[in-house]
């Protein structure tokens, strides 16, 4: 009963956020300079009068604003995100076509950044003040200041152009017709560079957080007790300090997931990764606002999904939370 | 002030950051004197390799434009947008956080819901949408960056105000008959200044990164040469002309790194107690 209530309140919150974003999208179309129908159709010159008239009718642009909003919300609820005049396809179809690639990329990057960040942060904290700590924190500081797309370009230059170790473009080898395991291997090779570059920036973020949190926890009384009762330093670090330090890291990782989805736009653009980030870039260059707003809506929905996942991870890291909630 | 400077200069990274930033600011100031010509002008043959002609030490781009000149003029745009957008974000975030923390109750609830909402929405994607819909210009870029970066400010200020408003000097001010507004403006906020300054210096760094990312995607002001634009324009020729993306990227990296180092130094110098405990 309690769990059902919890899920219900979560779902209500998710619905409220999505509703606000849909409304914001609607207002943005109307805030843009020019005729909303032309905005939805993309660059005004590209759309013919017949299509504009059809759009006006479809979205009832002659009706009062609040009525239009209701119609718009109703359409989005049915996954009708409009039609991309430029790509000659419904926006929803375009997005769902590209979504798996983005999910693969962002989840891989999320896992890479979280494991690398926590492991290296823990190592730095364990060796606080030593040369390993200095090296790790300096590297984190530099990666934290590096533009994501530039890191991606440099990675292509080094690992793909110079060393020829990994493919630098695309999702799989074009025309390879591989299936099953061979295809998965091919995709995995294409995935490495984008996932690692996207993950690196966030690894730096999680690393700094893990290190700071561990040093804070290491000074607490229960750690002294654990040491005093004769547990080895390593065991105390792993079981007592790291476990407690992970809580703030996981919380922030969930919040930061939104940035990860935004970062995917840059990574996918550089690596020609056929996900929704690349789709967003295409929408930008073609001034396809309907598609742009559709991608924005879906990425917001993805962030909410990430938040729910971190909530679940949270329960694993700290069993008290699941029980108390 | 001298005690502050002493603590700041003890942090070697912060001093290094200050030196790098001073160089970037100097370049931004002298750019129009050093390179009076427009950075958009074709001055040499295209794809001139760097370190070949002393007049064009960093080579030329796909259209024969001077890379060094572009870097110098780009420094102006990056710093300008970084500073102005941070200022605007503070103008939004500080009042919201201060009012939420000071008023409490329903007002606090409503304002924090709003803040949470803006934090949930993917920041960079929202910035892209805002700039694209309102057409790329310095003003729209500043506005978009400010809109996505105020929530952490509001949360920080709210937390500071919540802890400060229970202090004795606030009670004393209230007994002295000061209005709520006067207490907030004259007693509470000035005491919350140092964490806000630290956050602002880090926000300038993030704003520069976001601006460069927007320009990279082609959402820069079409009249302003910027580092992100230079990399974006060179993206497709990365295989033949590495220097076109390498140097602007290095400029962004150094500037952002400098600001982050300064932010950490400020944090140490302004909260000496925290610094000693923290590391």
Mean pLDDT of chain B: 87
Q: What radius of gyration of chain A results from the CA coordinates?
A: 24 Å
End-to-end distance of chain B: 24 Å
From N to C, what is the helix and strand string of chain B?
HHHHHHHHHHHH
Give the overall shape of chain A.
globular
Question: Mind sketching the topology for me?
Answer:
The complex is a heterodimer of chains A (325) and B (279).
Chain A: H1 2-31, H2 36-41, H3 49-58, H4 65-77, E1 83-84, E2 89-90, H5 91-126, H6 131-145, H7 148-162, H8 180-218, H9 221-228, H10 233-271, H11 276-285, H12 289-317, H13 319-324
Antiparallel strand pairs in A: 1-2
Chain B: H1 2-10, H2 12-34, H3 67-103, H4 105-120, H5 123-133, H6 138-164, H7 168-175, H8 180-191, H9 193-216, H10 227-234, H11 242-270, H12 272-278
Short description:
The complex is a heterodimer of chains A (325) and B (279). With 325 residues, chain A is an all-alpha fold.
Any overview of this molecule?
The complex is a heterodimer of chains A (325) and B (279). Chain A starts with a helix and ends with a helix. The longest helix of chain A has 39 residues, at 180-218. Chain A contains 13 helices and 2 strands. In chain A, strand 1 (83-84) and strand 2 (89-90) form a beta hairpin. Chain A is an all-alpha fold. Chain B is mainly α. Chain B has 12 helices and no strands. Chain B is elongated and about 75 Å long. The model of chain B is unreliable at 275-279 (pLDDT under 50). At the A-B interface, helix 1, helix 6, helix 7, helix 8 and helix 10 of A face helix 4, helix 5, helix 9, helix 10 and helix 11 of B.
Keywords:
heterodimer, A: 325 residues, mainly alpha, two-stranded antiparallel sheet, 13 helices, 2 strands, B: 279 residues, 12 helices, disordered C terminus
